[in-house]
Each structure stands twice: as structure tokens, then as C-alpha cells.
Amino acid sequence: MAQFQLADTDKVTFDRDGVIVLRGFHDPERDILPIQRAIYEIIGLVIERHGLNILRESFSPLSFDAGFTELIRINRGYGGEVYDLVKQIPAFLRLISSQHSEALFCSLRGTDLAGIGTASYGIRIDNPGEEKFRSQWHQEYLYQPQSVDGIVLWTPLVPILPETGPVMYCVGSHRDGLRKYVKDDVYSGKSGAYKISMLDEETIANQYPQSSPLTQPGDVIVMDYLTIHQSGYNRSARSRWSIQSRFFNFKDPSGMKIGWKASVTAGTEIEAIFSDYFVKGAA
Description:
This protein is α+β, with helices and mostly antiparallel strands and 283 residues long. The chain has 10 helices and 11 strands.
């Protein structure tokens, strides 16, 4: 495995806050640019497949998603095609499973056996003003029950400005364990796991200092599986593209006890696994 030395101060911060921001963790030219270039090509192929007349500027790292806004304006479903296809880009798969990232996890968790959960990674596309698929306050462990000893790596593919909607997290919230959740009418307009909400989520979130770091492609936000966080509100004119990957510790007793279950998106019945943490009725 590649050697990775995490600064002592970063380890202390992560243990205390449940989050660290590593600037320039990925090389923009070597790691990020090939993904951006492939996304540009895929958008063009989807446009071509549907015979659409969408003019696009030439590729650049700052405009790799040229034509996407026009594409989803014509048909939102075309954006779904792009969403599914970009997860199959080899450069993306190399990045999420890189020795560099694995070594980071092992350094943080003091283990020599890391795992990447089934369906635990992807490229998010958060469109301006679109609430249906925005991720509200939650803890990753509920949706990724591989082991409580896990981390999320969040990497932007576009510069994250205040209007783009940076990730929001509650500093130190991981120290208070897994919270109670409810599946009710609060988020009835959402789909799948987005219908699940943390019980009294705003009250709980407001108990902690909150942070929303601005990041650039190549930066990584590293979060503990129990850190309370949510997607920011994209109020810009452009989609927010970001990479999420997750590592877990095979040797953690909690994961072993439940059998290192796959992500909720892979069909895992999290309400059965975490029955003690689900409350019936309205939040």
C-alpha cells in the first residue's frame, strides 16, 4: 500500500470535530481532469443519441459540463442517463479506490483492512433549486451499514462557492452516537431513502457549531460516518458536481455483527437493521 502520513494536527482535528478538509489531496491534472473530460464526452454522446441541437463550447476543466443545463431543460430524464453513465468512468473508479485514499482511511482508523461498500460511491449532480434529491441532515452510518468505523470522502468537480451550496456539517456531532430517525410525511415529495429524516433534525443540528467549507477540485472533505451533515442549497445557475466515496473497517465489531451490509441504495433494509433507531409517527 502507498505510504500516507496524516499530519498529527489533522488526526486530532478529525477525532475532535468528526471532519477535516484536506486541500489538494487529489492532483487536479492527474486525478480530476480525466474524469471531467470523460463527463464532457458523455454529455455530448447523450445529446447526439437523442438528436438534440445543443451548441457546446470546447472542453475545459471549468466548463466540462457544457450543454448539461440545456439537456435537462429539454428532458430531465436525459440527465438521469448522464448520472448513471458517469459512475462507469474508469478514471472515477481509479480515484475512489486509490491507494492514496485507502492509506488515508487506514491512517485515520488505525486498521490495515479497509473496504469499499457496495453501491457506496458515485458522482452527485445537484441541479439549481432542485430539492427532491437534496440530502437533508443525516448520518452516513444509517445508510451505509458496513461498519460504524467508516468515513466519507467528498470531492468537488466544480469550484464550490457560497451560491453553489457547500456541504454543511455539525462540528463534533459524531461523538453523540447514532440519532433517532423517522419515515413520515415530512419529506413525502422525495424518493427512496430521501424520505427518511432525523427526528427533530433542525433542533439537533442547531445544538452544534456548523461549518460549510468552500472547496476546489482536488480538495477532499473527510467525514466520520456519525457526523451529522447535509447537502447545501444550490442557488447558482450551474449544477453542483461532486464525488462521494466511502471506506469502512472490516475489523470493526459492529460491521462484523451485522455482516457488513451494503448501502441502502443496494436494497439493504436499514429499518430492520436499525429498528431501535426508527420512531413511528410524525417528526
